[in-house]
Design goal:
β6, α6 and β7 form a beta-alpha-beta unit. By secondary structure, the chain is of the alpha/beta class. Its cofactor is FMN.
């Protein structure tokens, strides 16, 4: 069947992945209110198109952290791509390289950071990081990715503990025996103890605080981007702590249920940051006009999580390419139909909040 929009890929993935795998990717925390609101929030935002603006030529290029990408959509860090497609993250990396955009590799990859670089040597990549109770673990992976040419660290800060994802509990979700968290291959000897998403439970450090941002700065020269900020207070603290970017994110609605949709949190964060650092957003982007809305509200770039996994499930590298290409084409069309010729012309005047 013709894959026309991202919903087509979602439908395909739902029909072809195992129930436990589909449930793992689809899961939100608790009642999934925040997960679902991530999508609904975009529908509450209306565009104010300008006409007769000569949109015969359009340019979707932008920059993130000083590097040019072909359009303002990157791949958010999501775990376990080999569950969706046998080549896993290697396929994702190739697709992102082909479309010349940014791929944030997850710590919880089923391919190693080295395999990903070998597969797509010219790709533009950031690395998503958690802070572990054993700081040496975090430190070793930081040095590995820095040596491999990853261009930034994305510190995920909204997981002192894992959210309660009911379907994963019901399904007793576990990585199948042939897959593992490749970046930690051989690090955790068979403890026989309880596992959480492929590594021993209680490996994450719930004591993580702002001082760990300083610690991270002390061990790396890479720019640090904080992922998981939803308030202006924390945005201000991020700027004060000298980070280079913020990803406004609620972890795809998988952590705290009842928090804001990420697009609804974006404006107050952009207003607080006032251009001092770059602000990005993830969660709920399904169309090119969603991308346009996020940029109009001040995001420099958006990142997609689940849709990349649906693309993998459909056809591996080619599927992820198709997902990105559809978003690129839709974004270009939405821009033109709104009277914008390039990303610099996208601003808040384009937005009208509806009374839904």
């Amino acid at each position: 069947m013709a894959m026309v929009c991202l919903t087509d890929f979602e439908q395909y993935a739902k029909e072809h992945l195992s129930k436990a795998t589909w449930d793992y990717y689809a899961a939100g925390a608790d009642e999934c209110c925040t997960r679902d609101d991530n999508l609904l929030a975009y529908k509450r935002i209306r565009l104010r198109p300008r006409i007769l603006r000569d949109v015969s030529v359009s340019d979707t290029r932008t920059t993130v952290q000083g590097t040019e990408i072909s359009f303002p959509v990157g791949i958010a860090p999501t775990a376990f791509h080999c569950l969706a497609w046998h080549e896993g993250e290697v396929a994702t990396a190739r697709a992102t390289e082909a479309l010349n955009t940014c791929y944030i590799t997850s710590t919880y990859s089923t391919c190693s950071v080295e395999e990903i670089v070998a597969a797509a040597p010219n790709g533009y990549r950031w690395f998503q990081l958690y802070v572990y109770r054993d700081r040496k673990l975090s430190e070793q992976i930081v040095h590995r990715v820095e040596a491999l040419g990853y261009k930034a660290l994305v510190l995920t800060v909204d997981v002192p503990y894992t959210g309660k994802r009911r379907d994963d509990i019901r399904n007793q979700f576990k990585l199948p025996p042939h897959l593992k968290v490749k970046n930690f291959d051989g690090v955790f000897q068979e403890t026989g103890g309880p596992e959480e998403y492929g590594i021993p439970a209680n490996t994450l450090d719930p004591s993580i605080s702002w001082k760990d941002v300083y610690w991270l700065q002390s061990i790396t020269r890479l720019p640090i981007i904080i992922k998981g900020i939803l308030t202006k207070e924390d945005a201000e603290l991020a700027v004060e702590h000298g980070v280079q970017g913020i990803i406004v994110s609620n972890h795809g609605g998988r952590q705290l249920d009842g928090g804001p949709a990420s697009i609804d949190a974006l404006s107050e964060i952009v207003d607080t940051v006032q251009g001092r650092i770059e602000v990005y957003v993830d969660g709920g982007i399904r169309t090119g006009s969603d991308v346009l809305k996020a940029l109009a509200l001040g995001a420099k770039c958006v990142f997609i999580g689940r849709p990349a996994v649906w693309g993998l499930a459909y056809k591996g590298e080619e599927g992820v390419r198709e997902v990105l290409q559809i978003l690129n084409d839709e974004f270009r069309l939405s821009m033109a139909l709104s009277g914008c010729r390039n990303v610099a012309e996208i601003n808040r005047n384009l937005i009208q909040f509806s009374k839904l």
